[in-house]
Write a structure and sequence with these properties.
By secondary structure, this protein is mainly α. It has five helices and no strands. It has one domain (about 5-75). The protein starts with a helix and ends in a 9-residue tail after the last helix. It has helices at about 5-10, 15-25, 30-40, 50-60, 65-75.
Length: about 80
């Protein structure tokens, strides 16, 4: 999934959430960061992804992707969530 595609999916809304969460597993860091940014911008937020995104964030090693994931987490989480390894 291209970064631009991920951002466009974010504009679609929560129905695109599962595809964006799947893109967080892409081998390309730019694509993962794009998917995380799209999740952060999605209206209304895709709250169903909060726990999975927190788990992915805990394992992510790329600094740019981690930053995008950390930006998305507050938007996704309606309640505080714990990130555990």
């Amino acid at each position: 999934m291209r970064e631009e595609t991920a951002l466009a999916l974010g504009l679609i809304g929560p129905v695109a959430g599962p595809a964006l969460v799947a893109a967080l597993q892409d081998h390309e860091p730019r694509r993962r960061a794009g998917a995380a940014s799209a999740l952060a911008q999605m209206e209304p937020a895709f709250h169903d992804a909060a726990k999975e995104v927190a788990q992915i964030t805990a394992k992510e090693t790329d600094p740019a992707v981690r930053a995008a994931l950390f930006a998305a987490l507050p938007k996704l989480a309606s309640l505080p969530i714990a990130v555990r390894n």
